[in-house]
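for ur thesis appendix - Phage integrase N-terminal SAM-like domain-containing protein. copy paste whatever u need, i formatted it the way the template wanted (i think)
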Amino acid sequence: MGAAEVVQFLGFLANDRHVSVNTQKLALNALAFLYNTYLELPLGDLGFQHANKPAKLPVVISSQEVGRILAVMDNRDRLIFSLLFGSGLCISECLRLRIKDFDASRRALTVHSGRCCHHADLYPCDRPAFCGH
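the 3d part is after this line
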């Protein structure tokens, strides 16, 4: 097994097994160590491309889809979901909110987490689906 077979094996890992770049690099380093140290046959420059996976875009739902989801929820769940969607809160942050965290005059709320405290703005209600109208 020489350099051509090593390149073929690394291509197999990337194309057929769909391994990550780090897995492919680990295999290359292990084979290079084997060839250089024990077989005393340096591989040299193999000239191959590392595996790359295309970035996955997140799935986003439209405002109309959010409105349809809110329409079938009860009041408690609609409030929670509206806070999650409208202010970008995490579920755990939303479930930890208390009445005193809401400041209606400033249309803001205070979010408490384990190590810090930050503020989220509540925007004016221009969509009836989000306000419970």
